[in-house]
Every structure is written in structure tokens, then in C-alpha cells.
Specification:
Elements: H1 13-17, H2 20-29, E1 32-35, E2 40-43, H3 46-54, E3 58-59, H4 63-66, H5 94-100, H6 109-122, H7 125-129, H8 132-144, E4 150-152, H9 153-170, H10 177-187, H11 197-223, H12 229-235, E5 237-238, E6 241-242, H13 245-276, H14 281-287, H15 291-301, E7 307-312, E8 316-318, E9 321-323, E10 328-332, H16 333-336, H17 371-387, E11 391-392, E12 411-413
Parallel strand pairs: 2-10
Antiparallel strand pairs: 1-2, 3-7, 4-12, 5-6, 7-10, 8-9, 11-12
Helix pairs in contact: 5-11, 8-9, 8-17, 9-10, 9-13, 10-11, 10-13, 11-13, 13-15, 13-17, 15-17
Length: about 425
């Protein structure tokens, strides 16, 4: 059976503003389609997206499988080798590549298992729980500065709030948080479909600055350990295996870029959803059991990450459509999260949904390692923001990016 051909207009600003009507149309037509312009297979339905996220038949790279073909014991390939190769996208950008090379998002096989296990030992829920008083204090402090005024919820609240928490977790001085913010904004532009030369070079320069900064901070923590995650990453071990400096630096960069950008955009997308649906603190409290329910519903309703790519590791099928080994597919998280086969009236906010199995946290071995931190950050924020009874001042503009979905600003008034 031939895979249908459709096009996802990822550069069209009307689509960026509202991709969900297009998702609805395409999802009703087919579980998978070929997009010649974007050169990708797109997967539209919840059950298939979740299967790809959790199945070992799909991975972030297929080279780790190919490298183990044949007699492994007689080869020179160490058992922890993954074979994650530099793609054409990174060919001219050495530091961006270095910052991605040992990202948990990009690894598979034994290397991923070993690295994630070590990082998880340094990122225990109890160490994250200790940050809650800091979150409460920082949120209230930022909101107190906005009393009686108009402000940009993203630039004046969400960004400094999120970056300060990541900084506190890692052990980065508050005086350097602005650098983190600048580097993160520049680097994440490399993750969308189309990246122009200016943005790519800005990302490369930011990755170099971040890499050098992280190396210097790591060197200092080895000499003078502190109660922070960089110190814990430098100390954790399992069966005498420790993280290398390169692995630690890639983890630091991942925690900032994935954690900060996703949190900020969830706050922006989610709070706009609350305002546009005229949800007050009292109504939300009546409709939800906990603030966790609110967070899960808002991240389902307008996901900060709209797609993720995976390779097919063995010949397979998606609802009778044959997908050969080595194919690259893009799973549409926003489409999966609005699938009516799973979520009743999916375009509506419902904080009492029994089914919370959205796709925004990932799944399987690539389930978001920072989900426990993000949930706490968001719960504190939405609790405080709702109590402010804020009003939308002007209709916000989207950033223009499809993959990382967010607003340029979100102007509100007290």
C-alpha cells in the first residue's frame, strides 16, 4: 500500500499560529504521510506516536545497530560504542556537534543506558524536591516586581524564573544567568526544520562559549566541590565507570536547552490557553484535583515540542504501511495529543481527564529525564500566576518556529 503524499506547511505563519486544524485533517486521512518538500515521513496518530516513542524498533540513530553486525568480540569496537555520527546538518559546526555528541536525546544502546544511569544518580527526585522553596521564593519575587503594571509574562517572569532554577540546580552564579539565557536562545534555533546561515553560526558560537564555560566550571568544582549537580555529575560512578568531562558538559547543555526552553514555552502556551479560555483560579481549582492535573492538561493541549525524529531499526509497518529499515520518521506530538480516538473533545481544556497519556514527555528509554523538575516548576508557576488574576493585554505573536512552539511575547496586565 502506497503511503499518501501530503505537505506540512512549516513555514506558513497561519499554520504556525494554528497547526491543529491541519493535524486534524491529516490525521483523519492517514496515520502516516510522505512530505516531499520536508523530505520526511510524518506520523499523525496517538497510538503510533506512542509506539514509536516506546518501541525498540525505532531509535535516534541506526548506526549503533549496524556497528554491531558481525563478530563483535573479534572487532576493535568497544561494547559501549554507539556510533552516533555527525549528520550533514552539523558538518560545518564543530562546537555545536561537540555539544550534541553525548546528549541523551541522541544516544542509543549501551552508551545511552550507561550515561543515563549515571546522570540519573546525580539527578535524584530528592535533590530536585529541595529546590521547591527556591522556586516559591523566586516566583513570588518576580511577580511582586510586576504589581500594578503591564508586563511580558515570558521575558519578565518565565525566562528569569526558569533560568534561575536551572542555574540553582547546576550551581551557576546568578551573575552568569543572562549568559545561559542568551546561549540557550541561540542554540535551540538549530533544532527546527529550516535554519539559515546566520542562526547556524550564532548557534555555533554560543555552543563554543557554553562548552568553554561549562569546562571551566567543571574544573573548579573538581577542586572545590559544592552541593550542586555539576559536582554530583563529576562524582557519580557505577562499577568504577565515571562520566567524562565531555559527557558532563553535554548533559549540562541538554539540561539548560531542553529544560529551560520547554518550561518557558509551556508556561507561555499554557497560560495563554488559560486566559483565552477565560479560566480563573477558582474555576481551575474546582475542575482539577491537583495542580499536577493542570500541568499535564496544558502541556497536552499545546505542546512546546511539536515533532521528534526517529530512525526505523528494522523493517516494520505502521497500520499496514510498510516502512523499510533506515527510514527516518517524524512523530507529530501535537497531533497525537489532539487525537479524538484517545482524548474526548481534544481541543477543549479539561483538567479532570482520566487519560493523561500525552506524548509531550517522550517515552521509553527517552522519557524526559527532567520531567520531575519541570512538573514542580510548572506547578508552582501556574499556582502563582492564576492567583494574580491577570488579563491578556494584546494578542501574542508566535516566534515563527514550528518545532519548538512558543510565543515571541505574552503581554498581560494586573
Amino acid at each position: 500500500m502506497n503511503i499518501p503524499e501530503l505537505h506540512l506547511p512549516t513555514l506558513d505563519q497561519d499554520f504556525i499560529k494554528d497547526p491543529y486544524s491541519t493535524f486534524e485533517e491529516y490525521r483523519s486521512k492517514t496515520p502516516i504521510f510522505w512530505d516531499e518538500i520536508n523530505n520526511l515521513l510524518f506520523v499523525t496518530r496517538h497510538k503510533d506516536v506512542r509506539n514509536i516513542q516506546t518501541s525498540k524498533m525505532f531509535g535516534t540513530t541506526h548506526s549503533h545497530i549496524e556497528n554491531f553486525e558481525g563478530d563483535v568480540e573479534s572487532s576493535n569496537v568497544p561494547l559501549t560504542y554507539v556510533g552516533y555520527k555527525r549528520s550533514e546538518k552539523y558538518e560545518s559546526y564543530d562546537y555545536f556537534w561537540k555539544s550534541e555528541q553525548f546528549s541523551l536525546l541522541n544516544l542509543e544502546g549501551t552508551m545511552h543506558k550507561e550515561l543515563r544511569g549515571l546522570v540519573a544518580k546525580a539527578f535524584l527526585p530528592r535533590s530536585v524536591q529541595k529546590l521547591v522553596p527556591f522556586m516559591e521564593k523566586k516566583s513570588k519575587e518576580l511577580l511582586s516586581n510586576t504589581n500594578g503594571s503591564n508586563f511580558d509574562l515570558l521575558k519578565d517572569y518565565a525566562q528569569p524564573y526558569s533560568i534561575s532554577i536551572i542555574g540553582e540546580l547546576l550551581g551557576v552564579p546568578a551573575s552568569d544567568h543572562a549568559k545561559f539565557l542568551d546561549w540557550s536562545h541561540k542554540i535551540v534555533k538549530m533544532y527546527d526544520f529550516k535554519v539559515d546561515d546566520v542562526d547556524a553560526m550564532n548557534a555555533e558560537n554560543a555552543a563554543k562559549d557554553f562548552f568553554d564555560y561549562a569546562q571551566d566550571l567543571l574544573n573548579r568544582r573538581r577542586i572545590d566541590p559544592q552541593d550542586d549537580m555539576i559536582t554530583r555529575l563529576s562524582q557519580v560512578s557505577e562499577n568504577d565507570v565515571r562520566l567524562t568531562d565531555h559527557q558532563i558538559i553535554c548533559t549540562i547543555i541538554l539540561l539548560l536547552n531542553a529544560g529551560h526552553e520547554a518550561t518557558v514555552n509551556t508556561l507561555g502556551n499554557g497560560f495563554y490557553g488559560l486566559l483565552s479560555n477565560e479560566k480563573t483560579y477558582e474555576e481551575v481549582s474546582e475542575e482539577s484535583s491537583t495542580m499536577t492535573d493542570v500541568v499535564e492538561e496544558l502541556i497536552r493541549w499545546d505542546s512546546p515540542l511539536q515533532f521528534f525524529q526517529r530512525y526505523v531499526l528494522e523493517d516494520t509497518e505502521i497500520e499496514n504501511f510498510k516502512i523499510p529499515k533506515g527510514s527516518k520518521v517524524a512523530i507529530l506530538l501535537g497531533s497525537a495529543n489532539r487525537d479524538p480516538a484517545v482524548f474526548e473533545n481534544p481541543s477543549e481544556l479539561n483538567f479532570n481527564r482520566e487519560n493523561k497519556d500525552h506524548s509531550s514527555w517522550g517515552g521509553g528509554i527517552h522519557f524526559c529525564i527532567g520531567a520531575h523538575l519541570a512538573r514542580l516548576e510548572l506547578e508552582v508557576s501556574f499556582e502563582h500566576l492564576l492567583k494574580k488574576n491577570l488579563l491578556l493585554k494584546t494578542e501574542p505573536e508566535r516566534t515563527g518556529a514550528f518545532g519548538i512552539r512558543g510565543y515571541e511575547n505574552l503581554l498581560v496586565t494586573t
